[in-house]
Structure formats: C-alpha cells, structure tokens
Amino acid sequence: MEIIDLEICAARKAIHPALIKGDGFNILVDACYPGLLHRIEKAASLHDLSLSELTHVVITHHDFDHIGSLAALKKQYPQVKVVASDKDAPYIEKKEKSLRLQQAESIYPTLPLEERPQALRFHHLLESVEPVNVDRTVSDGEAIVDGVFVISTPGHMPGHISLYIPSHKTLITGDALVYRYGKLEIAVAEYTLDPPTAIQSVIKIGKLDIEHLLCYHGGYYPGDCKTALNSIIADFEDS
Ligand SMILES: [Zn+2]
Fold first, then answer.
1. Are strands 25-29 and 18-22 parallel, antiparallel or unpaired?
2. What pLDDT, in 10s, does the model give residues 176-188?
3. What is the pTM of this model?
4. 189 has pLDDT over 80
5. How far is ligand 1, taken at its centre, from the CA of residue 16, in Å?
6. Which domains does the chain have, with CATH numbers?
7. 134 CA to centre of ligand 1 in angstroms
8. Are 35 and 4 in contact (CB under 8 A)?
9. How remote is the CA of residue 30 from the centroid of ligand 1, in Å?
10. 168 alpha carbon – ligand 1 mean position (Å)
11. CA distance linking residue 65 with residue 18, whole number of Å
C-alpha cells in the first residue's frame, strides 16, 4: 500500500488530499474546493493514476473545501463509491442544512455592517455546493478496505472522521489536526464547532500507534507526532 500526499494548489494556499493506492483499490481522501476536479486529475496523473481507476472517495467532513468538487468527480467518474460517516451523510446529501452554513447564519446578525457583504458571499458559496449521494456510511473502527480504518474524530464537526493505516503507522487527519506556521494544532476555534471534543479526539489519536500525520491543511507533519500531540493537549489544559 502507498499513501500519497496529493498536494493541490488552491486559491490561496495548498491543500493536501490523500491518495491511498493498494491492491485492488485507490482511495481519494477529500475532494477539494469547488472547481478543482481538473487539478485532482492532474495531481493523480503525476502518481500514475487515472481517476477512472479510483474506487472510493472518503469525505472526512462536509466543509466546502472537502466536498467542493465531489459532485463533479462523481458525475465524471460514477464508479467511485462515496464514503462518509453516518453522521455527515445527511449534510453531504443536503437532507440536512450544512452545519457550517447554520453557524455562519447564526453569527451574521452580530457582524459589523462592513463585514456582512463578504459573509453573504460565504453563505452563497456554501449553498452552491451540490448534493451528492453517499454510497456507504461508516463508523468508528470500521475498515473501508483491508488495513484502512475509520477513526471517529469529532470536534471540528460532529461527524468528522480520520483514516488510520496501522501498517504505515499513519493517520490521515482531515481537519482533526492542522499543520500551519510550523505548528501542529487543532483547527482554529472559529471553525471548530466543539473545541473540548476536538481535544478529546486529539487524546484518542495520541493513543494510536502512529509515526506520521498527514494533515489536509499543511501536509505531512515533519516533527515527532507524539510530542506535538501532547503539547496540544497541555496547551488546552492550561488555557
Ligand atoms: Zn478544511
């Protein structure tokens, strides 16, 4: 099995969907911002993969930077099975209103007038993400394919999942952890719906046998994972 950081340049900074290539499967983890299917195709081709060979796309959570190109991908490559947590599926399918949109709408009345036009553009962007049918829902501990396990990591969003590959001592974190400005941390508070639960997820991650963390925002963490995880937990307890 091979775990690849499919680094893709988006509008402002790179994002890092993962590609897991194995015997009989090719799994993409997260589907980028809207309008980036061509970049996913190009990034995969650099690793000798045509998306017509893709078997699964796993969505860690329903934020627009993770599901933006999912509908286009599924239309172009209908063989791909869309996999998400049972808690997140209704939002991806738009049977429930996006939690991010609910959050944005709830803070809108508190915003200064000059920030409201930009906030409305953000609402419209969230509303514009097309629904996609989830082919398979998964829960904590379940194997997506042999050797690739779902770890439920709520906090950033309630249905957030990460993927654990014990044979490679690797966790694909989604947004349970981000690597930015040289530091491993939980996603910024304004985007983390439940910070105490996010820290519980960090504690849970710390109990796994891992040496590598692949963060959607920031890529592979280059330092010692356990030390960094312990320091996130200690900082939270001190705050
Ligand atoms: Zn994200």
1. antiparallel
2. 999 999 999 998 7
3. 0.95
4. no
5. 10
6. 2-93+134-238 (3.60.15.10), 98-126 (no CATH)
7. 19
8. no
9. 9
10. 23
11. 14
